[in-house]
Write a structure and sequence with these properties.
By secondary structure, the chain is of the alpha/beta class. The chain is built from 8 helices and 13 strands.
Length: 231
């Protein structure tokens, strides 16, 4: 499983917003990710799935821009978008504000409610499972894990919860957002989480002032923007 961190920062950071590629899967579509993908010469025909875990601006506001880009590029390859049930309606609202043409009608795009994806093979040999999570005060938010015969990965942008505990028992690697507010896990909670764990943790979405603290935490690997690694 090839992971490329597109950005590892939060809204206050000098680094790009948190998002990453997992082979041909984009996790999170924050503002500016389209330009960042173009800057690294990403082949959009290889993009098979986009995952959005919750409906905050830093999570999906560039999704309409990606769809408009693919519309003008006359994309023919199917694209799956996984996220909260309301994601399609919210994306359509943004698209109507951005462009007069019916972009979705011209593209082979399928929106899937994340809660329907349980041990499901959507691309290659990867099996996805989504669980409900707690993020800020949202009613709907998800974390997920993906497995194949060789590796396993969880992604969590969530508060401490039974769902997070469950995921961490099922995988060997975890990309996790660490913040300083009550929207997701904070530094002290993250430190406690890693103390008795054998998982490889890759924190993202943190403010600049946390980076030196995170470097000293057990089982923590800091991955810079556009850096790639294999799990």
């Amino acid at each position: 499983m090839n992971i490329q961190i597109i950005g590892n920062g939060d809204i206050t950071s000098e680094n790009f917003y948190a998002s990453f590629l997992m082979d041909n899967i984009l996790v999170s579509a924050p503002p500016g990710v389209l330009k960042e993908l173009k800057r690294i010469n990403f082949n959009f025909d290889e993009l098979k799935i986009i995952i959005v875990t919750h409906l905050h601006a830093e999570e999906y506001f560039d999704l309409p821009m990606i769809l408009i880009h693919e519309f003008y590029r006359q994309r023919e390859v199917p694209l799956i978008i996984i996220g909260p049930k309301e994601l399609k309606r919210k994306t359509n609202q943004l698209l109507r504000k951005a462009i007069k043409m019916n972009v979705l009608r011209s593209l082979n795009v399928t929106f899937i409610d994340a809660l329907r994806v349980q041990n499901t093979n959507l691309t290659g040999d990867y099996r996805f499972s989504f669980i409900e999570a707690k993020h800020a005060n949202l009613n709907t938010s998800y974390a997920f894990m993906v497995k194949n015969d060789k590796s396993s990965l969880a992604y969590a942008d969530t508060k401490i919860s039974p769902g997070l505990s469950y995921l961490l028992k099922e995988v060997k690697n975890c990309i996790i957002k660490v913040g300083i507010n009550n929207e997701q896990i904070n530094f002290e909670e993250y430190q406690s989480l890693t103390e008795n764990s054998l998982i490889n943790f890759y924190p993202i979405g943190y403010p600049d002032e946390l980076i030196n603290k995170l470097k000293d935490i057990k089982n923590t690997k800091i991955i810079n923007s556009n850096e790639q690694f294999y799990i």
